[in-house]
Design a protein that fits this description.
The complex is a heterodimer of chains A (271) and B (284). Chain A has 271 residues and is of the alpha/beta class. Helix content of chain A is 38%, strand content 24%. Classes of the chains: A alpha/beta (271), B mainly alpha (284).
């Protein structure tokens, strides 16, 4: 993995937001590399700025300082070239399943007929054939997030940014979607950056795990996960799984002592 | 939408036992019978009161008198032509006012600068009771159709504008962020995220505005006109012809009632994704 070339390099990013009175430094010189066809999980205490990094990479907000280098080229952001998936499925309620999947292609100006054909193929591949004309409201949470995943993948993005995409789902559905994601990523040779507060998920899915310190966020450590099993369920029964899990828990624990616990934190550790 | 919300809260408030053991009258036919019965009792009391002299026929008319006038005016075609005239004014005013107001309100989304600039003016204009404009509007637009439509437009346009602008501001920012990450232009965000999400609140204003359209038409006719239900009511009341006044009011009510259900149908047609969801309503 270390031998794979660097695809995206996040260099010395600073970002502060205006808070009550003083400004809040969220990112203070954050740097890390994402390799080609990498699967990196970013874990860290709640509110440490994980989503902020994603928003900067996706071009939703601008950093105060620092740079992004994509395949050797200095860029302002990866806007239009990332697949951003969030905890909320963000399906457009007035669009059918097919219409939602088509969204990104419309943005790019792909001819409607080609776009529909591609969308139907993707929907069929993910077991959603027959649901093309259903409105999101009629689907289960797992199905909705599957549609969101298809919508992300169909754009063939350079990098997938997944911000706790499965955390609102029940455990079985989550396992199923993790497997689906892992398969899709391998089939389409995608690079994934996953933000999660679920250490278990991070270990089961990733090739590398980046541990961030509390606010302002800095990279504390980076762990290579050497579990060869590709299925997330099989990975969880690998004999090294527990070791990684314990190490990462330990590293996060140190962070939790540094500041008063927030509401989300206990569940992050418990899972 | 308002109806659905009301049904929902009613369903929630209903005690458990009552919903399990439904009364014989709590069916479509049962409720209809009760409602018709209530109206019949009221009319009979009114008629009886007139007959024995407790209610003044001169000031209140009588159900039988109203019925006779109704039949006569329906037969000679006057009722139909007056109704059609008023309905036309109201709908034209409603359509022009609602569309121009909604478009202007949505357009304000494009520029926060312009929106902030015009906001105090909109609030100021909106705080004038629009009916107070009626005399000037008659002066400007004459006594014919145009003045009534103009009055209806003045009543509906700002309601639509404010609602549309508010809805555009309230449009889900996460959906917009998603589109930005996909590389969307401002134009695309407007058409794909903002406009569709404003459709339900804008349609909700239809219900209010269709009523205002009727108000504009009728008040315009009160002030100066040769035709229409407002003309009919105003004229008849100046002759103390209460039975004819009741006919006019009754037909206005029917018109308003019908328009409400037309809007309901329009809503179903325009936002199927919203209506289809109400199947899974909470039943306590």
């Amino acid at each position: 993995m270390a031998s794979a070339p660097v695809q995206l390099s996040v260099r010395n990013i600073h970002k502060a937001f205006a808070g009550r009175g003083a400004e809040v430094r969220v990112l203070d010189g954050l740097s890390f590399d994402i390799h080609e066809q990498d699967f990196v999980s970013i874990i860290g205490p709640s509110g440490c700025g994980k989503t902020t990094i994603f928003n900067i990479i996706a071009g939703l907000i601008e950093p105060d300082a620092g740079s992004l280098v994509y395949r050797g080229e200095d860029i302002a952001s990866l806007r239009g070239r990332v697949g951003y998936m969030m905890q909320k499925d963000l399906l457009f309620p007035w669009r059918t399943v097919l219409g939602n999947v088509l969204l990104g292609l419309e943005m790019r100006g792909v001819a409607h007929r080609d776009a529909v054909e591609r969308a139907r193929e993707h929907l069929a591949a993910f077991g959603l054939a027959g649901f093309e004309n259903a409105y999101p409201k009629t689907l289960s949470g797992g199905m909705r997030q599957r549609v969101a995943l298809i919508r992300t993948l169909i754009m063939d993005p350079g990098i997938l940014l997944l911000d706790e995409p499965f955390s609102a789902l029940d455990y079985q559905t989550r396992l199923y979607l993790e497997g689906l994601l892992k398969q899709a990523v391998e089939t389409f040779h995608k690079t994934v950056v996953l933000v999660t507060h679920d250490i278990d998920e991070a270990v089961a899915l990733s090739k590398r795990v980046v541990v961030l310190s509390g606010r302002p966020a800095r990279v504390k450590t980076v762990h290579d996960i050497e579990i060869a099993e590709s299925s997330p369920i099989a990975a969880r029964s690998d004999r090294r799984f527990a070791g990684y899990f314990r190490t990462l828990c330990g590293e996060l624990d140190i962070q939790t002592e540094a500041k008063p616990p927030e509401t989300k934190q206990p569940e992050a550790i418990a899972s | 939408m308002t109806l659905i919300a009301a049904e929902k809260s009613a369903a929630l408030q209903q005690p458990r036992a009552a919903s399990r053991k439904r009364s014989l009258f709590d069916t479509m036919i049962g409720r209809g019978l009760l409602q018709a019965g209530a109206v019949a009792v009221l009319l009979l009391l009114w008629q009886f009161g007139v007959r024995i002299g407790w209610v003044s026929e001169f000031l209140f008319g009588s159900p039988s008198g109203v019925f006779v006038v109704f039949l006569r005016m329906a037969a000679n075609g006057q009722l139909l032509s007056d109704t059609a005239y008023t309905l036309f004014e109201a709908i034209l005013g409603f359509v022009i006012g609602t569309i121009s107001g909604s478009v202007a309100g949505l357009a304000l989304w494009y520029s926060i600068f312009v929106a902030r600039l015009v906001e105090p003016f909109i609030v100021a204009i909106n705080s004038v009771p629009k009916i107070a404009l009626a005399p000037i509007i008659i002066l400007w637009f004459g006594t014919g159709l145009v003045s009534k439509v103009a009055l209806a437009v003045s009543l509906t346009a700002l309601v639509a504008l404010i609602a549309a602008y508010q809805a555009a501001k309230d449009a889900d920012t996460d959906l917009q962020a998603l589109l930005i990450s996909m590389g969307a232009t401002k134009h695309q965000i407007f058409w794909k995220a903002v406009v569709p999400s404003t459709i339900p609140p804008i349609i909700a204003t239809f219900r209010i505005n269709i009523g205002f359209g009727l108000v504009g038409a009728v008040v315009g006719e009160f002030i100066s006109s040769q035709r229409g239900l407002g003309h009919l009511i105003y004229n008849a009341s100046s002759f103390y012809d209460l039975n004819t006044v009741w006919v006019g009011l009754f037909v206005l009510m029917l018109v308003g009632f019908a328009l409400y259900y037309v809007i309901d149908a329009v809503e179903r047609l325009l936002i199927p994704w919203k209506v289809s969801g109400t199947v899974h309503q909470v039943q306590v």
